[in-house]
Write a structure and sequence with these properties.
two-stranded antiparallel sheet; binds zinc ion; 5 strands; rod-shaped
Length: about 120
């Protein structure tokens, strides 16, 4: 009985090792993908998570927002800046017909919170 438990314990430890290693490999893969994406210009379609992260960044006072490429200080642009809104199809200006089909990949990642 004792020997069986030992064998089972050894087997379970091996299973845990393999699962842990696979999890580490998956995390490493994801990190590599994110690092690569950060340096690229990202074109739509953007995922709901990317759209949410981009719009959160637009509201972050510590960052410069993406703004309208037309005359963003005319009377139509009532916010005075033409701050763009992210959609799955790219940036749209809420005040005119300006569209922008790219963002910096780094801006699609939410900042790490302290939770
Ligand atoms: Zn505009």
């Amino acid at each position: 009985m004792r020997r069986r438990r030992t064998v089972l314990g050894y087997f379970m430890a091996k299973v845990r090792d393999v699962l842990f290693q696979r999890k580490m490999e998956a995390m490493a893969d994801r990190c590599a993908q994110e690092i690569e994406a950060m340096g690229n210009l990202l074109r739509p379609p953007w995922t709901p998570e990317q759209v949410e992260a981009l719009n959160a960044a637009q509201r972050d006072p510590s960052r410069h927002p993406y703004t309208c490429g037309n005359n963003r200080t005319d009377a139509r642009h009532t916010d005075g800046e033409g701050v763009l809104v992210a959609t799955p199809d790219g940036w749209v200006c809420p005040f005119c017909d300006y569209r922008q089909p790219w963002c910096h990949g780094a801006d699609t990642f939410r900042p790490v919170s302290g939770e």
